[in-house]
Amino acid sequence: MDSQYSERQVERHSRPTTHDLAKAAGVSRATVDRVLNGRAKVKQETVDRVNLAIEQLGFVRNLAAANLAKGTYYRFLFVLPQSGDLFLDEILERIEEANHAFASEMIWAEVQHIDENDPHGIAAFLSALSKDSIDGVAIMAPESPQLRDSVTRLKERGIEVLPFISNQNFDQDGGWVGIDNIAAGATAATLLGRFCRADRGTVLLVSETIQSRDSLERRFGFDDIINTEFPYLRPLPTLETYGSQERAQEIIATTVANNPDIVGVYVLSSEARAPLEALFEQPLRHKPTVIAHERTEYTERELSCGNLDAVITQDPGHLVRSAIRKLRAGVDGRETLASQERIRVEILIKQNL
Prior knowledge:
The chain has 353 residues and is of the alpha/beta class. It has 15 helices and 11 strands. β5, α10 and β6 form a beta-alpha-beta unit.
């Protein structure tokens, strides 16, 4: 009796198989396989019977096992900026880690660097990608008409496309990876306003390029809070470094010279080292409150020594893993678990490093 009960328990809790589907639908396992793989020469009535059996049995296909059996890999590509610093290095390391972590699931991701200031070059590269060699692309690049057009062509060729970190406007269904940048900018303004002890003054804002949607949205969020809650602080127009150390030094030196009342600084872009090094070289009248983005060796060090007041960050490992899971789900025609893929806005200060 115990043995019979045990067998019933195993049967009750075991996952339904293609054999169970075939039995429930009254078809062969070969027919079930053709339906699952979307092959031709299956009557619609038969397809409907198999789909009904899938629903009734709660069948979930083990795609990893199926791909392993067929020797099929998911081939993904991260298209990342050519110019970058410590945060980009973090992303590259996390991609390498992910390749080891996802190897058993037949997933492999490569990296291609592009000149983020050359929209025509980006479009030309994306136009050369083929479904024969790539299944999905995660793109970190400034928004442009050329990018939108090339992304449309990628999708027409059956390649999954995912905005990565920078939420380009071609994303129409929320399928991107990154933090809520408007909330991040609002958080920066709140921190700067509360930490700043001056009763009036100017705020310096710096980005690699305001054409990048993440920087643009951060600026929107920042201005909303500064102008409503801290109206005695005057934010300047955003300075753009275009990733150049020399340009950062030149434009920041000029701005500081013309605005001796700077009491706050906000670096909107993910790479903070170049603008902050240029800033700390300037003969500032007051020690400003400084807020930046992304946890790197440099921002950790500046937090520790008190030059930085707070860092708004996002987990690069989570970003990469989420991008891979979303690309795979798109290839498989599935949805990911939203709560698992949500990227949090995190705040670092000296005391919680």
